[in-house]
């Protein structure tokens, strides 16, 4: 069997007769390295290195060197030398063994090149090795005549394999840490799969070796293993990375269970990376996987709980606490900017067998001064076209926190449509939203802009949206809870005039009261009923169409 196929074996199960030398054992028990661009095939976390390089095995290896070269290792007894290696030189000795230079450990000890000196820095075409700290002394023991540049190059590479990075939070246990990694630092990924590309980055499912991260307690809280989501930004824009990381630190799952938890950020190879727990799926995929959902009691209670939870996350984003701001000025507020089913993630939870939904992808989240009240120009506003509110298309209109209220309303209406009528009818509803847009294209927004022939437009909620509200109210599955939910969406969220929409605090309080009633009143929750409440149409808004589209181009 090829040696490569033997990676990952258990050190304690290896007898002396099973391996030729310590080099063989190290490779046999190493963790396969997923990054195939490296010179080495595997890496060794500190705990694994301790299990492989026991004192007895180190002594055995030293005896082999002494037998092969009787004049060597005469300065101190081998047992004493092994003790020194075990205390201070385990990593250095492992690297020397792996590159076929283990017999030089005595010289390294004489010059005090212990584990704390790693990594050594390689300079010049001959890869001379120097200490990382000034005055950058030269490692003379690696300049011997039998050391060629390739040996020093191998040392420079393998030293990172015995010291892979450790992913961890800051010492407070809730603040994501940022690291700048040298290009040669080994990222301890043991697997990589399910790459997803989006407008803001590439998300990859990665497995991290259990000894190379300190997120075990957090992973237990969401019933997952060592799987994570690694997000790499599409470009090397440092400001974009810093903005997203800052937003995720402010609006983090440590402060609200329904917001995604940023674990760590790092840069390497001019690549900007963020690390999150791996979700089961997003809300859009959740709907697609269950095209005809069953409206049982458990589903209704769970839906109410998650709707309330998402509302609490939006409230936290809109009104971040002083702690989340991490600045002395609490006159700040936030806006998500791209709420949609794809940005709502489902995680397992030990507290709910159906899982928990969290708000993710805060790449568009903005934090603004209360002085401007989020009144940002609608020029160059990114987001998802279907869910954008009318103010994105109104000349002179400003973008405020109410942007998120509209998009959340769109999401909730689709959610109830899926729950009552199934995935196919939800897809049909979205298709029916298509109508002529002022630019001449077809748009599937939830509002329409009807030309008045004088450069002015009347903005209204689309008739297909109003028809869908009526359909859902009339559905035989509709209980008093869902009537109330639909009324809030229609009357308070999908409102053409932004200033007339409900604020996130009031919305959360309303949903929370409804959820408490769901838990206490079975009739409210489970019993289908008719709604006697009639809602009149909203008054159209007479506007001028924006002169510049959200990407900064002139409308066609």
UniProtKB/TrEMBL annotation:
| Molecular function GO labels | ATP binding; protein serine/threonine kinase activity
Record region (Disordered)? 531-556
Residues crossing the lipid bilayer are none
InterPro entries per record:
Kinase-like_dom_sf, Prot_kinase_dom
Q: Tell me yes or no: is Acetylation among this UniProt entry's keywords.
A: no
UniProt keyword Nucleotidyltransferase, yes or no: no
**Domain Protein kinase, residue spans:** 189-518
Any Pfam family hit: Pkinase
**Keywords, sorted A to Z:** Kinase, Transferase
Q: Which PANTHER family match?
A: PROTEIN KINASE DOMAIN-CONTAINING PROTEIN, SERINE/THREONINE-PROTEIN KINASE SBK1
Q: What is this protein called?
A: Kinase-like domain-containing protein
């Amino acid at each position: 069997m090829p040696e490569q196929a033997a990676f990952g074996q258990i050190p304690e199960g290896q007898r002396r007769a099973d391996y030729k030398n310590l080099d063989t054992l190290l490779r046999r028990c190493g963790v396969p390295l997923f990054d195939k661009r490296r010179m080495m095939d595997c890496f060794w976390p500190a705990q694994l290195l301790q299990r492989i390089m026991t004192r007895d095995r180190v002594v055995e290896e030293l005896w082999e060197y002494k037998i092969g070269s009787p004049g060597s290792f005469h300065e101190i007894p081998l047992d004493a030398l092994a003790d020194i290696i075990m205390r201070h030189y385990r990593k250095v000795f492992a690297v020397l063994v792996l590159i076929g230079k283990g017999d030089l450990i005595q010289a390294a000890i004489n010059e005090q090149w212990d584990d704390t000196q790693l990594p050594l820095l390689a300079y010049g075409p001959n890869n001379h090795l120097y200490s990382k700290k000034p005055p950058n002394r030269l490692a003379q023991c690696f300049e011997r005549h039998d050391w060629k540049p390739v040996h020093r190059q191998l040392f420079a590479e393998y030293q990172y394999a015995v010291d892979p990075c450790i992913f961890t939070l800051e010492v407070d246990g809730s603040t994501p840490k940022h690291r700048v990694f040298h290009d040669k630092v080994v990222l301890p990924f043991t697997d990589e799969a399910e790459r997803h590309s989006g407008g803001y980055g590439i998300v990859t499912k990665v497995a991290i070796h259990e000894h190379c991260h300190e997120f075990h307690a957090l992973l237990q809280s969401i019933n997952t293993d060592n799987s994570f989501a690694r997000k790499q930004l599409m470009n090397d824009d440092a400001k974009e990375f810093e903005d997203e990381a800052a937003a995720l630190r402010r609006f983090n799952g440590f402060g609200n269970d329904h917001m995604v938890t940023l674990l760590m950020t790092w840069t390497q190879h001019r690549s900007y990376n963020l690390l999150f727990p791996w979700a089961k799926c997003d809300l859009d995929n959740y709907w697609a996987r269950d095209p005809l959902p069953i409206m049982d009691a458990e589903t209704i209670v769970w839906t109410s709980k998650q709707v309330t939870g998402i509302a609490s996350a939006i409230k936290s984003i809109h009104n971040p606490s002083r702690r989340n701001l991490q600045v002395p000025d609490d006159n700040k507020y936030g806006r998500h900017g791209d709420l949609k089913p794809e940005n709502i993630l489902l995680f397992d939870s030990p507290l709910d067998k159906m899982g928990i939904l969290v708000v993710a992808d805060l790449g568009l989240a903005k934090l603004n001064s209360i002085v401007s009240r989020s009144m940002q120009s609608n020029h160059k506003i990114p987001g998802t076209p279907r869910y954008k509110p009318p103010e994105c298309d109104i000349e002179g209109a400003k973008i405020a926190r109410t942007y998120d209220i509209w998009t959340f309303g769109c999401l909730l209406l689709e959610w109830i449509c899926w729950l009552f009528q199934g995935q196919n009818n939800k897809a049909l509803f979205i298709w029916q939203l298509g109508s002529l847009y002022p630019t001449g294209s077809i748009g599937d927004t939830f509002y329409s802009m009807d030309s008045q022939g004088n450069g002015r437009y009347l903005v209204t909620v689309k008739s297909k949206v109003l028809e869908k509200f009526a359909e859902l109210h009339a559905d035989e599955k509709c209980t008093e809870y869902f009537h109330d939910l639909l009324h809030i969406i229609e009357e308070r969220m999908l409102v053409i005039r932004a200033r007339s929409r409900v604020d996130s605090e009031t919305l959360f309080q309303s949903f929370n009261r409804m959820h408490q009633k769901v838990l206490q009143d079975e009739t409210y929750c489970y019993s289908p009923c008719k709604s006697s409440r009639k809602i009149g149409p909203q008054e159209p808004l007479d506007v001028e169409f924006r002169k510049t589209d959200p990407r900064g181009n002139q409308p066609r």
